[in-house]
Every structure is written in C-alpha cells, then in structure tokens.
Design goal:
By secondary structure, this protein is α+β, with helices and mostly antiparallel strands. The chain has a single domain, classed as Beta-Lactamase (2-Layer Sandwich). 28% of the residues lie in helices and 28% in strands. It has a seven-stranded antiparallel β-sheet, with helices on both faces. Strand 5 and strand 6 form a beta hairpin. Helix 3 crosses helix 4.
Length: 173
C-alpha cells in the first residue's frame, strides 16, 4: 500500500492541472471542452473510455500510441470485455464503478512483476468527464509505463495489478 499525497509523475501532474482548468466549479469537465490538439503533450499516453450504463460496458475511444506499443496491441474501438480475461474485466469493472460514483480523479503508482527479472513500473491518473454535468460517462486515463526491456506488456497482467492496488484520490491543489 502506497500512501500517495501528491502526483509524483510530472506529465500526470500537468494533465491533472489541465483537467482542473477545464473542470472549473463543475463536478467534471465535458469531452466537448477540449480538442485532440489540446492533448498533444500526453497524446501517446492517454486512453479515452466511454462508459455505457445499461448494461455497464467500457468502450475504448482511443488508446495512445505509446500504450499500444508497450502492450503490443491496439485497443481503440474495442470494449474492455473484448480483450481482457473475464476475471480481470470484472475487477476493472468494479474500479470503473468506483470512478463513476466518486466523480473525482484517482492517481496510482506501482509496480508488478510480469516474469522473472521483468518488473514494470506504472503511473496512472484517472480523470472523470461528464456530458450532462451530473453523471460520469467518460474517463481519461493518463498511463506511463516504465520498462526495463523491449518485451510487450501483457494487458491482463497490467490490469490485474492496477485493479488490486488501493485507490487513492489525487490531490486537487
């Protein structure tokens, strides 16, 4: 358990600050508040996910090029349940329920062992968005993976590790 009191990753701190500026005094900004050009500093390291309510499903609108390269597959245009093992999907779905009900950003950092001598460090910031000003229907995930080799990272292993860590709300100031 890592008690994080601030965002250690400079890129994610800047992304959080961008989100706060968009948010203003609302519960969350809307997707219409920014253009892809606004995301240029983070474009390779973000995932935009639509959250569908009934039944709950999670659609990857876009996954950044650094993420798809590190994970060795393209996720854009797919639902999470199409590329994750069922047990991993269920854990991630629980995380998404927490994100949508809390309506605030969450920051995580951690490491997981994928194979002997393959330790992966990650930094992740989850930012909520709302098209109606009331419910969270999209999240933006800033994800930076630090690798010590050139082997692709298994998406199931990464998601399993991230869903098992304690979620600590990111500080907003």
């Amino acid at each position: 358990m890592n008690m994080i009191e601030h965002i250690d990753h400079a890129g994610l701190r800047a992304l959080r600050d961008f989100w706060l500026k968009l948010k203003g005094d609302r519960i969350a900004p809307s997707r219409s508040d920014f253009s892809p050009a606004d995301l240029k500093p983070w474009l390779g390291n973000i995932i935009l996910i639509n959250i569908e309510a009934n039944p709950p499903r999670y659609y990857v609108r876009v996954a950044g090029s650094n993420i798809t390269h590190d994970l060795g597959q393209e996720f854009s245009g797919k639902y999470y349940d199409q590329f994750l093992d069922r047990d991993v999907y269920e854990a991630i779905a629980e995380d998404f329920k927490k994100f949508t009900s809390a309506g605030k950003p969450f920051y995580y950092q951690g490491a997981f062992i994928e194979a002997p001598r393959r330790v992966r460090d990650y930094f992740r910031l989850v930012l909520p968005f709302s098209s109606d000003g009331e419910s969270i229907d999209m999240v933006m995930i800033g994800l930076y993976l630090h690798r010590n080799d050139h082997f692709p990272i298994d998406a199931n292993n990464l998601c399993r590790a991230m869903s098992s860590n304690e979620k600590i709300p990111a500080p907003l100031v």
